[in-house]
Predict the structure.
Amino acid sequence: MKLTITAKKMQISPNFNTYAESKLNTKLDRFFEDGADAKITLAEQKNFIILELTVKSGTMIYRAEQSALDKNDALDAAIDKIIRQICKNKTKLGKLIRDSAFKEMNVDPVEEQVSYDVIKQKEFTLRPMSVDEAILQMNMLGHGFFMFLNAATGIINVVYRRDDGNYAVLVPKQA
């Protein structure tokens, strides 16, 4: 697994790099093929370390964010979150993860068949607007996200409110 570590406004020691590689190889390698990429982003916010772990394998992206006083504790918790996500959705993930991954784990052999019920489908007209206008519209509607046609690019985008109160834009990219 290829690992990239990024620190925002803080220094990380080589010991953390070694620790992170060891943990990821020990706990997550069994789920993913050799071409998987892992990215760790660290930031410090008020005495807490915010760690974001993203693993890309094939077409799937697994992500976990964790805050803790220590970056090692945050990494351990983020890895555990990703493992829980995989175990919870193992039936749906099917062949996207290694078949042998669950043999070593104590996972209940009775697989829960989870289905997602779509209870509503909404159609609406997309009109060209700027990102700022889309955020304003989202806030006026009281929604957590808003889909719009970006006037600058002509591409459908989504703006959403992040947990930290800031906003982000999802822009599609061809694979």
Summary: The mean pLDDT is 83. The first helix runs from residue 14 to 27. The helical segments are 14-27, 71-88, 90-93, 131-141. The longest strand covers residues 48-57.
